[in-house]
Design goal:
This protein has 310 residues and is α/β, with parallel strands linked by helices. The chain has helices at residues 3-15, 18-25, 29-43, 59-83, 99-116, 168-174, 224-232, 242-250, 279-298, 305-309; strands spanning 48-50, 55-57, 91-97, 120-126, 140-144, 152-158, 161-166, 188-191, 200-202, 212-214, 220-221, 237-241, 255-264, 267-272.
Length: 310
Amino acid sequence: MSESDLGFFVLLARRESFVETAREIGITASAVSRRLARLEDRLGVRLMNRTTRRVSLTGEGEAYFSKALRLLGEIEELENSLRSGQEKPSGLLRINATFGFSREYIAPAVSVFRRTYPDVEVQLVVTDAPMNLIEQGFDLNIRFGIPSTSNLIQRLLQRNRRFMCASPAYLEMHGRPETLQDLRHHNCIVLRQEHDIYDIWRFDDRGGESPSARVNGGLSTNDGEMAREWMLNGHGIMLRSEWDIAHHVREGRLHVVLPDYFQTANITAIYPERHHLTAKVRVFVDFLAERIREANTKAPCQLSESDLAC
C-alpha cells in the first residue's frame, strides 16, 4: 500500500464527501469514487458506506483509518528526524484552543509569529470543548486541566487555578458565603460546556476529600467572557481562571470567595508525539511559552496570598 493511497483515504474519511475530496485534490468526484473502489477491491473489504450526499466509515474502514493515521505519522516523524538539523518552520500549523485565552494570548502571538516565520500558514480554530487532535488533523491543542488522552505530549505553559469570585456590589447585597453549602442560597453564574455537568462545581482534594457544590442561578451561558461580564456587573458568583480575573481582583472589581476551594487547571500545550520534532510546532510552542512568561512578568496572572485574603 502506497503512502499516497493512505493519504487519499484519510482525506476522504475526514471530508466524508466525494465532491469535497475531489475539489481538494483537483480531480472529479467520479474519479474519487473509482479510486476508493479500486482500494476496496485490492483489500477485499468495504471501507465506506455511500449515500447520495455523504460517505461514512464501515467497521473495517474505522480500523484502516486509525492505522493509516499512525503510519502517516510515523513517515512524517521519520522525515522530520532526518532533516531536523536544518529544518525551518513551514507548512500549515493547525491550532485548537479556547475562546478567551485565544483572544488574550494566542491570536496576538500568532500575529507576531506569522511575521517572523512567513512560510508557516496558521489556522486557529477556537472551541470551548477540545477537538480530537488526531482524527481532526490538528497539530497543537492549548487547553486547561488534564487532557483525557495519555499518549500525547504535554508541555506546561502556565500554572493556573480556578477560584470562585464575585463583585463587591453582589457581596454587599447578598453577603459572603462562609461554606460550600452556603452557595445554595446564592446566584451562581454557570458555564454550560459540552460534556460538562454544569451545575456541580468540583474542587481539588483536601486531605482525602473531594469537595463539591451544586449551584444554581438565573444566568448561564457557554461563553466565558459574557459570564465574566455578568459577574463584574454584580449578577452572581462565578468559578473563573485566575489568569482572567487576577487584574480585576487586584483593582478591587472582584473578590475571591472561599479561597481554600479551587480547581487546578494548568494551561498546557498538547500535541501528538510524532510532532515532537516538527519545527513549526516546536518553534511555535517555544514562542508562545516565552510570550506568556513575558506577559506574566509585566502583570502577574497568578493570585498571591494577599490577593486571596482581600
